[in-house]
């Protein structure tokens, strides 16, 4: 398979993954074409894994992470996002917080993120993006933001909405999906410390094709749950209607937990392919995070609630 480098990222700007693995200092985040604020990256710890949720598996190369993507707002093919996402304008960026919450407001991204010290907030997580990958995300737990926003007692779910801008996102000019893209989590899922709001990867600001400038990362779920380019967070009492469950309810449910025992109607999910590998490997329950998240679904039938 031919992997093409994202056209708006020069090779000289790409952090060599070997530097990360050797725990050297990252190149400081470039500001051109990225966030309106710099993303600090500190000295990595000598021990490995780095944090309580980190994997010590080999990282997926930066080129693969940024050139093989599912972001249908830029087109249905895996190469479309890296080819078309340069049209996305990420400065300025605001996120509307509304619903059952005590601090509803239009937040500038800088103000939303500023309270969280991002230095060393690196999460080496297994993820199901276009294929299975291991990505060093830069961000902070969504739960920290939720506590700051103070949801009311009526809030049971959070609904997330992606930017709707057909002039910038050519995929939205088609009727492929009902736009804008909407996803949701139960509040307890959103509060879990493994649920991350990411602003970067490999020590650099998120490339547009990876969901710049702000995206969700829920590593125990299939990738379509990890909504990208977020412009709205709405705290609600009832379960949101997420886009893929509306589009194909027999194939995509609300929960989207990685479960090798429940097949997709058109293929088996018992084995997965890590990007760069020739052979498939056994799919792990909850993508390998079962010991961390299975209690969230103790009383749920995961075959019916897929």
Short précis:
The chain has helices spanning 17-21, 62-67, 80-84, 109-113, 142-149, 187-191, 243-247, 290-293, and strands spanning 94-99, 105-108, 122-128, 132-141, 157-162, 182-186, 196-201, 204-205, 215-217, 230-236, 271-272, 281-282.
Characteristics:
306 residues, alpha+beta, Sulfite Oxidase, Chain A, domain 2, five-stranded mixed sheet, five-stranded antiparallel sheet, 8 helices, 20% strand, disordered N terminus
Task: Give a topology summary.
Elements: H1 17-21, H2 62-67, H3 80-84, E1 94-99, E2 105-108, H4 109-113, E3 122-128, E4 132-141, H5 142-149, E5 157-162, E6 182-186, H6 187-191, E7 196-201, E8 204-205, E9 215-217, E10 230-236, H7 243-247, E11 271-272, E12 281-282, H8 290-293
Parallel strand pairs: 1-10
Antiparallel strand pairs: 1-2, 3-4, 4-7, 5-6, 5-10, 7-8, 7-9, 11-12
Report strand %.
15-25%
Roughly what is the average pLDDT, rounded to an integer? 87
Over the alpha carbons, how many angstroms does the gyration radius reach?
Answer: 18 Å
CATH topology: Sulfite Oxidase, Chain A, domain 2
Strand order of the largest sheet: 2-1-10-5-6
User: Tally of extended strands?
Assistant: 12
Number of helices: 8
**Which CATH first-tier class would you pick?**
Alpha Beta
What structural class do helix, strand and pairing data support? alpha+beta
Weakly predicted, low-confidence segments = 1-47
- What does the largest sheet look like? 5 strands, mixed
